[in-house]
Amino acid sequence: MINLNQEFLADLGLGGLPWAAQQSLLGHIHKELEIRVGNKLCEGLSEDLLEEFEHLADADVQEMEAWYSKHMPDYRDRPDFKQLRAAMPGSSVSDVMSRFGTEMWLRLNRPGYPEVVADVLQDLRLELLVNGGALRARFAPTG
């Protein structure tokens, strides 16, 4: 599991930044990681598959129900779905369906996605190490 947190920044030598700067930097890192992982996972996929994933990610209820009917009609009875639903109290059913559906879609269509995420994160970590000084200057308060 990826923990983009203050410990992650400390490991990169960026733990001395003020809390607000750390939060801002972590937000940038998270967005960049999502973009890079998304781009890598999309390589070689058909437009139909990309659209399918988009519908799940966007919680398009009608399209999600069609996907579940086709690929996983028993999802409501699955222990892993029930466990996720319990772990997301206060979330709408469509939000749980979206999260579960995207995870299942990735397992079906990109079974090596955890390795892709790890590889992309490692590349990003190296970039952050190399550019630590510039990042400290950018995110440190001016005074």
Structure description:
The protein has 143 residues and is mostly helical. It has one domain (6-139). The chain contains 8 helices and no strands. The chain has helices spanning 6-11, 19-42, 47-57, 61-71, 79-87, 93-109, 113-130, 132-139. Helix 2 crosses helix 7 (113-130) and helix 3 runs antiparallel to helix 6. The protein is elongated, with a radius of gyration of 18 Å. The termini are far apart.
Structure summary:
By secondary structure, the chain is mostly helical.
Would you spell out the secondary-structure blueprint of this structure?
Layout: H1 6-11, H2 19-42, H3 47-57, H4 61-71, H5 79-87, H6 93-109, H7 113-130, H8 132-139
Helix pairs in contact: 2-7, 3-6, 4-6
DSSP strand tally: 0
Q: Proportion of β residues?
A: under 5%
Q: How do the SSEs run, as a string of H and E?
A: HHHHHHHH
Number of domains: 1
Structural class of the helix and strand makeup? Answer: mainly alpha
